[in-house]
Amino acid sequence: MVQRKIPMRKDIVTGEMLPKKELVRVVKNKENEVFIDPTGKKNGRGAYIHLDVDTAKKAKDEKTFDKTFGVKISDDFYDELIEYVDHKVARIKLFGHE
Predict the structure, then answer these.
(1) If you ran DSSP here, which 8-state letter would residue 8 be given?
(2) DSSP codes of every residue in 30-82
(3) Segment 9-57, tens digit of pLDDT
(4) How far is CA 24 from CA 2, 36, 49, 55, 61, in A?
């Protein structure tokens, strides 16, 4: 069987290169809206963060996405991101990677 190449992306908080499946994509579109992209296919500039609650909390503390995208992002977005990451981690523990 042929070994498939695993797509790697860089976590903007820690700077680590990780498999794409272990990351969450956050997108800024042309209207300067920043949102979580669960599909990984939405249009706009994307940045990745590791599926780890501590990493998401660190992103909130350091306002990582504000710096990356050059726009002011509310704390509500970061809270939503932390909640989303926590939910995904729990799903992976229960069911494994989709």
Answers:
(1) E
(2) TT--EEEESSS--SSEEEEEES-HHHHHHHHHHTHHHHHHTS---HHHHHHHH
(3) 999 999 999 999 999 999 999 999 999 999 999 999 999 999 999 999 9
(4) 27, 8, 5, 11, 18
For residue 98, is pLDDT > 70?
no
| CB hemisphere CA count around 18 (13 angstroms) | 18
Query: Side-chain half-sphere of 1: how many Cα atoms within 13 Å?
Result: 3
The pTM score is 0.90
Task: Tell me the CA distances in angstroms from 39 to 23, 58, 63, one per residue in order.
Answer: 11, 23, 24
- Return contacts of 14-17, CB within 8 angstroms, 24+ apart: 14/50, 14/55, 16/50
Q: If DSSP codes are grouped into helix, strand and coil, which group holds residue 29?
A: coil
Both tokens assigned to 7: 């797509």
- Rounded distance, CA 72 to CA 92, Å? 31
